Amino acid sequence: MNTEYEDFRASVRRLAADKIAPHAADVDDKERFPEEAWAALRAADLPGLPYDEKLGGSGADLLSQVIAVEEVAAACASSALVLLVNWAGTSTVVSHGSDELRAEVVPRVAGGEAGAAWCMTEPTVGSDLSGIRTTATRDGGDWVLNGQKRFISNAPWAEWYAVLARTGEKDFGVFMVHKDDAGISFGPHEKKMGMRGSPTTDVVLADCRIPGRRVVADPTQGYRYINGELNVSRALIAAQALGIAQGAFDAAVAYTCDRRQFGQALSRFQLLRGMVADMAVKIESARALLHDAVALITAGDPRARSRVSMAKLLCSDNAMSVTTDALQLHGGYGFIRDYPVERMMRDVKITQIYEGTNQIQRLVIAKDVYAGQVRS
Question: Is S-adenosyl-L-methionine one of the keywords (predicted)?
Fold first, then answer.
C-alpha cells in the first residue's frame, strides 16, 4: 500500500482514537446516536468520501472508503455503520439517478447534514429480494408507495430512504423517499444485541406519494440496480468486520502485556501466544483478500462479485473468531462492560448476517466456482 493510503489510515486512526473511542461505551450503554463521532466525522469531511466534488464530496476511491470504515469500526462499530449506510443509501442515485435527483439528494448527505438509508428487507423478506411486497403505483406524475420495510439502519435519523418496491409482476424500481413526505412513518427503536448506537426501525409506507422525479432511472430495473451496488456495500461491511476484529485484537494484546499472573505478564505464556498468532493471521489474511476484492471491483473485473463475497465471508467469520478469542484472553474481565471486547463481540455478530448472510455468500462463491469464474 502506498504512502498516501498509509497516511490517510493514520489520520483516521488518530481521529477515531481521540474523538470516537472515548464515547463508544456510552453510546452502546445508552443505545443513543453517536453524536460526538458524527460531529468528528463531519469535521474531517469523511461523510463526503465517495461523492464527486461537484456534489460536495472528495471523490475518494473505494480503497479509501474501506480504510475509513475499518479504522472507525475499530473504535466504534455503530459509528462506522452510520457512515457506510449513508453511502449505501445514496449509491443507486449516484450510479443511475438523473442529475436533478443527484443534486436534490446527495449534497446534504455528502456534507454530513443529512443521513440516508436503503430499504430492502421486509418482515417476510430477507435474502430473497424477489419476494418483496412493497408496491409503487404510478398516479399521474407521481408514485404512490405502500409497504413495510424492516431492520432499516439509520431510520428514523436519516433524511432520505432508497426504497426498493415492486412496480409490476416481475419489475422493481428504486424510489427516493424523504422523511417529510406524507405517508411515511417509523416503527419503535429496535432493542439489539449489538450496534446499539446505530438507529434501527421499521419504515412504514402508507399511500406515500412522491413526485415522479424521485424514481431512480428506469422503474422496472431497480432489482438490477440494487444488485449492482452489492459489491461495494459488501466490501464496506467486510471492512467494518475487519475493523472490529482489529480493535479487539489491539485491546487483547495490550491487556495481555499489562496483566500479570504467576509472576509474569500473560503475554509470556506459550498457549496465549499461540492464540494471538492465530488472531493476527486471521486479520491479515482477511485484509489481503478484501484489498484484492477492492482492486477487482475498481477495475470492473467480473471476478469481483465472487471475490467480494469471499472477503465478506472471511472478514466477518474471522472477526467473530478474533473477538471471541480477545474476550477469552481477558478472562473474567472480558465478560464485563468495563472493557470494550464484550461490546465488540456483540457488535461483530451482525456482520455475518446482514448484506447477505454468510450462507448466501457461500452459495454465490460456489456458483462461480462451478461456472469456472473464480480461477485467476
Answer: no
pLDDT in tens, 299-318: 999 999 999 999 999 999 99
208 bridge partner residues: 145
Average pLDDT of the residues in 137-147? 97
Q: Is 3 exposed, middle or buried (0-12, 13-18, 19+ CB in 10 A)?
A: exposed
For all residues of the chain together, what is the average pLDDT? 95
CATH for 233: 1.20.140.10
Q: Considering the domain boundaries, does residue 165 fall inside one? A: yes
How many C-beta neighbours within 10 Å does residue 31 have?
A: 16
Of the residues 167, 194, 221, the one at which a domain ends: 221
pLDDT over threshold 60, residue 373: no
Asked if 23 and 73 sit in the same domain, the reply is: yes
d(CA 253, CA 326): 8
Q: What is the DSSP string of 199-250?
A: -EEEEEEEEEEEEGGGB-S-TTBHHHHHHHHHHHHHHHHHHHHHHHHHHHHH
- Distances from the Cα of 362 to the Cα of 30, 213, 357, 358, 369, angstroms: 36, 38, 9, 6, 10
Query: With 70 as the cut, is the pLDDT of residue 84 above it?
Result: yes
At 16-73, the pLDDT tens digits run 999 999 999 999 999 999 999 999 999 999 999 999 999 999 999 999 999 999 999 9
- Give the rounded distance of the alpha carbon of 190 from its chain centre: 17
The answer to whether residue 355 is catalytic is yes
